[in-house]
Amino acid sequence: DVKVTQSSRYLVKRTGEKVFLECVQDMDHENMFWYRQDPGLGLRLIYFSYDVKMKEKGDIPEGYSVSREKKERFSLILESASTNQTSMYLCASSPLGRSTTYEQYFGPGTRLTVT
Amino acid sequence: QKEVEQDPGPLSVPEGAIVSLNCTYSNSAFQYFMWYRQYSRKGPELLMYTYSSGNKEDGRFTAQVDKSSKYISLFIRDSQPSDSATYLCAMNKGGYQKVTFGTGTKLQVIP
């Protein structure tokens, strides 16, 4: 069974803080993704990575950065948290490389509140 | 206009009913079409995927893709209370292309 874990289920941070969200997958997947999910807007892609030390911007990368130093771990960083980054953050991974980005396995999500 | 449109619901049906969930899309380059199910306070899980047009059946679930109309559907037969969840359609162009998700339809199956 594929397992994607996220470091926290709930997180409360103050405006201006640097926030780290960690994601780990245990199935040796090459591809990893970070999304945020908001009511009425659905899932929006922030960043993704097809390999270690490789990253690509998604649809809404502003205010975020990522790090992938090991294959199994993909971190999302909010450099200076703002209230409009209050959201549910979902990490996902997918197997192989080129042809299976559609088959994504999601973690349980981190509900981040920025006050 | 969003690339993928999905009615948010909520959709409420009695147990045993046939459920029809739908999405429309605007980008004719989409080739892979997926349905994800998301239970409350959980991440989405892949239910089914279809490549190009046609039907695909898996137990009580049937996915249909009509590329000429840019319309996809998920049918659930003999719906159960355990089917109560939010259903997200999703699609991509294949290769390294990102997946575009619908906003999800919330389904409630009443015992």
What are the main properties of this structure?
heterodimer; A: mainly beta; seven-stranded mixed β-sheet; four-stranded antiparallel β-sheet; globular; B: 111 residues; mainly beta; five-stranded antiparallel β-sheet
Describe this structure in words.
The complex is a heterodimer of chains A (115) and B (111). Chain A has strands at residues 4-6, 10-13, 19-25, 31-38, 42-49, 56-57, 64-70, 73-78, 87-94, 105-106, 110-114. In chain A, strands 2, 4, 5, 6, 9, 10 and 11 form a 7-stranded mixed beta sheet that branches. Chain A has a 4-stranded antiparallel beta sheet with strand order 1-3-8-7, with no helix packed on it. Chain A has 115 residues and is mainly beta. The N and C termini of chain A lie far apart (37 Å). Helices cover 0% and strands 55% of the residues of chain B. The model of chain B has no long low-confidence stretch (mean pLDDT 93). Chain B has strands at 4-6, 11-14, 19-25, 32-38, 45-51, 54-58, 61-66, 71-76, 85-92, 100-101, 105-110. Chain B is mainly β and 111 residues long. Chain B has no helices and 11 strands. Chain A binds chain B through residues 4, 40-43, 45, 48, 50, 58-59, 90, 92, 97-99, 101-109, and chain B through 6, 8, 32, 34, 41-46, 49, 88, 90, 92, 94-99, 101-104.
Structural class of chain A: mainly beta
Q: What is the count of β-strands of chain A?
A: 11
CA-based shape of chain A:
globular
Strand elements of chain B, count: 11
Poorly predicted runs of chain A: none
Largest sheet of chain A: 7 strands, mixed
Helix and strand pattern of chain B: EEEEEEEEEEE
